Every structure is written in C-alpha cells, then in structure tokens.
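Hi all, posting the design record for the shared folder.

TITLE: backbone redesign
STEP: 1 of 1
STRUCTURE INPUT:
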C-alpha cells in the first residue's frame, strides 16, 4: 500500500474551518521559519512548518498548521 503524503505543495487545493464555516482555497507557499506572513508573525520551523493559503472566494491569505488543512479530493495524492 502506498504511503499517504503528509506534506502539502504549492498549488494543492485544500479546505479549512474559518469562523465555523468551511473555506476552500489553495496553498501558496510553505513557511518553515519564523516570519511575517498574512499580516501576522508566524512561528514556524522546519520541524513544524505552516502553510500560507489563499481563499478561493475572497482572495485573502491566511497561515495554518498542516493538521488544520484538508486536501480536497481529486488533487494531489490521497
């Protein structure tokens, strides 16, 4: 059985919960160091990366941990 891909890549279609609603969009980049992104300081590292995502509906960017993002079916690996 193939091993499930755990990381995300630029362009992957994902969904996340925002203010109690499902939001969909795409990954714009992987953040693996402490930096400013999406209007806030992101405390990411190589061991605990975060992902900048862009909402398909509003075009706004946000940064989330991997466990908060769910790959949409039909994109990338399962």
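Okay, here is what came back for every position:
SEQUENCE:
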């Amino acid at each position: 059985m193939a091993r499930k891909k755990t990381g995300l890549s630029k362009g992957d279609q994902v969904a996340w919960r925002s203010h109690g609603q499902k939001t969909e969009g795409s990954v714009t980049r992987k953040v693996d160091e402490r930096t400013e992104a999406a209007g806030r300081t992101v405390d990411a590292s190589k061991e605990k990366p975060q992902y900048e995502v862009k909402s398909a509906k509003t075009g706004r960017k946000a940064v989330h941990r991997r466990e908060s993002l769910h790959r949409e079916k039909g994109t990338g690996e399962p």
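COMMENT: The chain is about 0% helix and 45% strand.
Let me know if anyone wants the other runs.
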